[in-house]
From TrEMBL:
Organism classification: Eukaryota, Viridiplantae, Streptophyta, Embryophyta, Tracheophyta
Protein name from the UniProt record: TRAF-type domain-containing protein
Keyword flag Zinc-finger: yes
Comp. bias regions, Basic and acidic residues: 369-400
Entries under PANTHER family matching the protein: F26K24.24 PROTEIN (PTHR10131:SF161), TNF RECEPTOR ASSOCIATED FACTOR (PTHR10131)
Top-level division of the source organism's lineage: Eukaryota
The keyword Transmembrane is annotated on this UniProt entry: no
Length: 415
């Protein structure tokens, strides 16, 4: 590669002469939006690379590197001239068919870079097949890499040019300061307060540099800023950690009740789960018993719940999940003996009704769920359908078997 050292003078001719602080009898503030200038400085290298590659494609005697110095000079002159006449041209165009064109310096100058690159295409480079080929993209990337490695056109030099171009096209003075002063003292006084003076972000870990006028905008989006939890827990979290915090450890994260699988579809903040468990112990137990004594009447089961709660002397409220609860209930039920059922005359009717309800409810629970518990609930529902005889199960071996099965199936469910 025959790229020269990068310390050649790259500023356009007229700017070199004028580039003093003093122009006539006024003192100009030279500050500008560093972010935009940097962004524009970054489009020069890919632009130059594609201009050099397309210019030499199909010519076996010339490499992109052999034309880089000349093309770079042409590119700087082209951009300078276009930017200088930009304001006059856009005044003519204002209100015309092109009035909708963006007036953002980045868009304006990127488009100029693209225009330049397309002007430099060789005859072969103009063939549409080549322009769309992957090989072209690779070559442009490779050459850009080569220029970067060789320090052919340093960012700081590109930024110096970008700065001039921004001043030329930014006629609304949004991205550079155009203030003029009569004395150097006045200028110095202005510079320390100028909205375009650079500032460093003070949030720990952030290395962003921005214009003073952008401070608020950056601060409101800085990923390193420590802010209160979005879900209003008591913690302060770094903005970039917020999403993770909110869906993992945040005490205010909304979770399903741990007894979702047995039919409680409540959602609560995870810090309130324990409270919810003790507040709803009766209904959680009732739901659990429905799964075990499929077909038993609601009334019989409610009575059973009371017996179990009484016998448990408060220890059931600590159960964290379905598995723990089922194991304890199984234990307590063994002590209580067979489930007592109501008088015989209403028994048949009620148990059928309970059976239907139980079946429907567990199928419904299965449909609503979307996880492992769905399968469990569904299995329970399917297996229970048709089993309407309470007597068959109560106190029999089958009951133990069901308790074991449900226990095993739920054992994989964690809180
Ligand atoms: Zn200023
Ligand atoms: Zn920051
Ligand atoms: Zn939180
Ligand atoms: Zn619940």
């Amino acid at each position: 590669m025959n790229l020269p050292a990068s310390d050649v003078e790259l500023l356009p001719e007229n700017e070199k002469i004028e580039d003093g602080k003093e122009r006539g009898h006024t003192f100009h503030c030279e500050l500008y939006d560093t972010e935009i200038v940097r962004k524009i400085g970054q489009v020069f290298l890919p632009g130059l690379s594609s201009a050099c590659v397309d210019n030499t494609t199909g010519d076996m005697f010339r490499s992109p590197g052999s034309v880089a110095v000349d093309v770079r000079k042409e590119m700087i002159d082209y951009l300078t001239q276009r930017s200088e006449s930009f304001v006059a041209e856009s005044v003519v165009l204002e209100g015309g068919p092109d009035a909708a064109v963006s007036d953002h310096p980045y868009d304006i100058i990127s488009a100029m870079v693209d225009d330049f690159a397309s002007l430099k295409r060789s005859l072969f480079g103009r063939v549409s097949g080549w322009l769309l080929s992957e090989k072209r993209e690779d070559k442009i990337d490779d050459f850009m890499q080569e220029m970067e490695t060789n320090g052919f056109w340093l960012l700081e030099k590109r930024e110096a040019i970008a700065q001039i171009l921004v001043k030329n096209v930014d006629y609304k003075n949004i991205f550079h300061c155009d203030k003029k002063f009569n004395t150097a003292e006045e200028l110095a006084e202005h510079v320390v307060n100028c909205g375009f003076r650079t500032m460093n972000c003070t949030n720990e870990g952030c290395i962003t540099v921005f214009c003073a006028s952008q401070l608020e905008k950056h601060d409101s989006a800085c990923p390193f800023k420590i802010i209160p939890c979005e879900q209003q827990c008591s913690e302060n979290i770094m903005r970039r950690e917020m999403d993770r915090h909110c869906i993992t450890v945040c005490p205010m994260k909304i979770v399903n009740c741990p007894f979702y699988a047995v039919g409680c579809h409540s959602t609560v903040p995870q810090c309130m789960v324990q409270q919810h468990r003790s507040d709803n112990l009766h209904s959680h137990l009732l739901n659990t018993l429905k799964g075990i004594h499929n077909g038993a009447s609601e009334e019989d089961l409610k009575r059973r719940v009371d017996q179990i709660v009484e016998l448990s002397s408060g220890q059931l409220a600590d159960d964290r999940d379905v598995r723990c609860l089922i194991l304890k209930v199984k234990d307590l039920e063994a002590k209580l003996g067979p489930l007592e059922v109501k008088a015989a005359e209403t028994f048949g009717e009620e148990s059928n009704k309970a059976g239907d309800n139980g079946g429907e409810e567990s199928i419904e629970a299965g449909n609503k769920g979307g996880d492992e518990s769905t399968e469990v609930a569904k299995k329970g529902g399917e297996k229970s359908t048709g089993e309407t005889s309470v007597e068959d199960k109560i106190g029999s071996e089958k009951s133990t078997e069901i308790i074991n099965r449900v226990g095993e199936e739920f054992s994989s469910i964690q809180v």
